[in-house]
């Protein structure tokens, strides 16, 4: 197992993979890849998202040791359980700015405002993005974080969709790049979003689109920002096999509780014919009664066994390529390599906090 969590290890990962954090002899290992994981997901998905990214990184790493340190935006509203979890296992953002990392992964969260700049965490997120440009070899931005990244650096506003982009979609590889090396021509990736960064706007601002779909737009796109290659996913290659089912069930419950006006659309390309029939039959009952008590008859047990993580090979290959890119371009190789004469133009101290 090449993945190590620095500090206290979250209980679900410890239960399956051991309770040790980073051993003292490993903490200074010269060959490890140091990753800052900024997990901003809502309370209900916070711990699931940890496990999904940990498992993906662990599978993609091969034999390369990876050291992960956990962070989250402090301005995201949290309940008591989530606050306790973050207090026990996550570090402050000040620690992130003072630390040294080879790469970073920043997740999205559930949007509350039409304009991302009105979100309470915007200033902190913008500071982290500025820091990542100068202090990582590469940074991954997931879903809403990808939208925040292109808005902050290039003024590209996300565009609302007529319905939720929800399900597993086929994306065709449109550009050759280190991240898509040895991937199939078509990659299957889950999506769950109400907005999109328009492909045309991205291309006009210098982003390279690596995978696209006629049904779901752009998925994976990249751009070099100062020192760092920013990797943007509008989808969720890290998702587990049951994640879309959990989201679908949550949205159905919100409809039954009259927290949303419309019954949610079934996720695309996810359920087989038998499971889809069971869920459509349930939909007829739910539409007729619209009472939360109906959820007692939700056919989850019958559906779970039919679900497969068909996107795992694509996700594993792209993240394996990302780790190899980070390893080859890690910041300390630039900062601490012998230099002839004066410092290289634009060279920054890797521990210097970003200007706000």
Protein described:
This protein is α/β, with parallel strands linked by helices and 356 residues long. It has 2 domains: 3-240 and 309-335, 3-Layer(aba) Sandwich (Rossmann fold), CATH 3.40.50.880; 243-304, no CATH class. The chain has helices at 11-17, 24-27, 43-60, 80-89, 93-98, 122-135, 144-154, 199-204, 243-256, 273-289, 300-304, 312-329, 331-335; strands at 3-5, 33-38, 66-71, 103-106, 138-142, 159-173, 186-196, 208-209, 211-213, 217-218, 220-225, 228-233. The strands form 2 sheets. It has an 8-stranded mixed beta sheet. Helix 3 (43-60) packs across helix 12. The chain is globular. The two termini are 38 Å apart.
Total DSSP helices: 13
Could you give the count of β-strands? 12
Class from secondary-structure proportions = alpha/beta
- What is the CATH superfamily classification of the largest domain? Class I glutamine amidotransferase (GATase) domain
| Structural domains: how many | 2
CATH third-level topology of the largest domain: Rossmann fold
How confident is the prediction overall: mean pLDDT?
90
H/E element order: EHHEHEHHEHEHEEHEEEEEHHHHH
Strand content: 15-25%
CATH class categorisation of the largest domain:
Alpha Beta
Unreliable segments of 5+ consecutive residues: 23-28, 334-356
Largest sheet: 8 strands, mixed
Radius of gyration: 21 Å
What is the terminal separation in angstroms? Answer: 38 Å
Strand order of the largest sheet: 1-3-2-4-5-12-11-8
**Do you know the CATH architecture of the largest domain?**
3-Layer(aba) Sandwich
Cα shape: globular
The helix content, as a percent range, equals 25-40%
